[in-house]
Amino acid sequence: MTRIPLIAGNWKLNLGPSQARALGAELAQALADRRDTEVAIFPTALSIPAVLGAVKGSGITVGVQEIHDKDTGAYTGTNSAHFAREAGCTWALIGHSERRQLFAETDEAVGRKARAALQAGLLPMVCIGETLEQRDAGQVHAVVTRQLSAALGTLRPDEAVTVAIAYEPIWAIGTGRTASPEQAQEVHAALRAWLRDRYPAFVAEQTRILYGGSVKPANAAELLGQPDIDGALVGGASLKADSFRAIVQAASA
Ligand code: PGA
Asked: Which of 16, 39, 91, 206 lies at a C-alpha separation of 20 to 30 Å from 6?
């Protein structure tokens, strides 16, 4: 069973509507010749409509960076999964380490949000990953499997298989320091083994596990060449069409 590679761009709090529209249009053109690779981008919420317009017809999908687990109500300042779906989003990014660290998002909240996304018809992209202290203390496996278990929680196998898992070691995000292909592959293989233990075989076979953390054109091919790395979640290098395109090409090779 081959998993279709997925390259996702997390634009974080960058590119307002006009800049986002311009990059979306550039990407729609630059990526037109990609083969067998899915592409998703996560603009800041206010730029989503502009990007959706710019990538229309290109096959590039768009996601929201943050959702609440409640659809409507007195929850000032957040996004509803249902509204994101209605606006045209395909994905919801959930549990990014910046949300966990800067906005106190817990494992339990990540689980609730994954369920809310699925109920609204969005595909969850769930981020997990350890700090440097946890890695140095030999806790990588315990941390990422605890986070994954909380995120997938009570999902049925047919729901779990639609989730894209993004393994992003926190020490590699925005630092220029990437996990080596061997370090990343080791964790990805452990995550797949965890899925194999808990679900029917198709879930481990089909679920895409992306790597994130300082992915750039220079290291993408080696990372994406690992047997259990099915794509990348790209921050900094997704903000320029040429570097993002080079990563997409590395996945299509
Ligand atoms: P980076 O960010 O590629 O800039 O390290 C990755 C992410 O935060 O998803």
From this structure: 16
Question: Domain boundaries in the chain?
Answer: 6-252
The verdict on the CB of residue 169 being under 6 Å from ligand 1 is no
Residue 98 CA to residue 232 CA, distance in Å, equals 17
Calpha distance 160→151 (Å, rounded): 10
Respond yes or no: is residue 168 known to be catalytic: yes
For residue 235, give every residue at least 6 positions away whose Cβ sits within 8 Å of its Cβ, in sequence order, or none.
Answer: 9, 10, 12, 173, 174, 212
Rounded CA-CA distance 252/237 in Å is 17
Q: Which CATH architecture has domain 6-252?
A: Alpha-Beta Barrel (3.20)
Q: Does residue 61 have its Cβ closer than 6 Å to ligand 1?
A: no
| Cα 245 from Cα 249, distance rounded (Å) | 6
What is the pLDDT, as a whole number, of residue 1? 59
Cβ–ligand 1 distance for 111 under 6 Å, the answer: no
12 CA closest ligand 1 atom index: 8
Backbone angles phi, psi at 6, to 5 degrees: -130, 120
Q: What is the pLDDT of residues 195-246, one digit of tens each?
A: 999 999 999 999 999 999 999 999 999 999 999 999 999 999 999 999 999 9
Cα→Cα distances 167→20, 153, 177, 229, Å: 26, 17, 15, 9
Concerning whether 159 is annotated as a catalytic residue, the answer is: no
